[in-house]
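Example (one chain per record):
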Amino acid sequence: MTKNKQEDILDAALLLFATRGFDGTTVPMIAERAKVGAGTIYRYFENKESLVNALFQKCVMELSETIKKDFPISNGDIREQFRHIFKRMFNFAKKDINGLLFVDSHSGARYLNDQSKKLFADFLDFLRILLENGKKQGMICQLPSEALISIVYGAFVRLYKVIQTGVLEETPELLKGVEECCWNAIRVH
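Predicted structure:
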C-alpha cells in the first residue's frame, strides 16, 4: 500500500469499475482491493457515487490533458491534428487501459453528477471543434460530429480491448494502419 490511502482507493476502484462495472462493484470489494477498511473509504468519499464521480473526473481530465498536450493548433492542419489525437489516445491507453475502459463504460451513466457530465462534454467539445473545422475546410465528411466521434472512438476502444486480450499484437505498423483507416473513415473522399 502507498502512503496515500485515497490514491489506493481510487486505484482499486478504477480496476474494479473498469472490469466489473459500477453495479458489479461494492464498497467492501474496493476496500479489500485497496487494503483499507470500508470505513476508511467513507472518510474520503461520501458514498460510492461520489467515489465513481471523483474517479471519472480524474480519468477524463487525464485523457483530456494527454490529448491536448502539445496539440498542433497553430498550423490548422486537420490531418495532423487528427494524427496527434489518435497517437495521444494510444499513449493514454498504454499508460492507463483501465482509465480508458472506465471512461468508455461510464460516460453516459445515470449516477454521474453535473460536474462529471460537464467535464466529459468539454472533452467531447474539443473533438467536435476539430471535426467542425475539418468540415468547414472540406476535409471531413458532413456527418454529425457525434457519428464521426463514434466511428473513430468506438473503433479505437474496441481495438485496444483486442490488443489487451492478446488477440492482436500492438506494433507501430498496426497503429499506423488503424490510424490511417480511421482517418479514411471520416475524411472526404
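Caption: The chain has nine helices and no strands.
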